Amino acid sequence: METSFNFRISLIVAVLLSFSVAHAAILTRDEYKADKTRISADDKVDKKACDALAGDVKSNCVATATTQFGKN
């Protein structure tokens, strides 16, 4: 009986924690826009850093910067 009770309590705690984690993952519209702007700015900075390079090294640098931020 006590084992069943402990299991139920553990299950309830696990469910409640999963709701709090799921809620924390939701972004507001403003947060989404700010993140999108930050990622775009970081992408531009990284690509600008590749301008000093040439040839295959530059191609690899640009490809790395592009894929790092999920842009193809």
Describe the structure.
With 72 residues, the protein is mainly alpha-helical. It has one domain (2-68). It has 3 helices and no strands. It is elongated.
Q: Helical stretch count?
A: 3
Order of helices and strands: HHH
Q: Which range does the strand content fall in?
A: under 5%
Q: Could you describe the largest sheet, including whether it forms a barrel?
A: none
Protein structure class = mainly alpha
Number of strands: 0
Into how many domains do the coordinates divide? 1
Uncertain parts? none
Helical residue percent band? over 70%
How do the strands and helices of this protein lay out in sequence?
Elements: H1 2-24, H2 29-49, H3 55-68
Summarize the structure.
The protein has 72 residues and is mainly α.
What are its keywords?
72 residues, 0% strand, mainly alpha, elongated, 81% helix
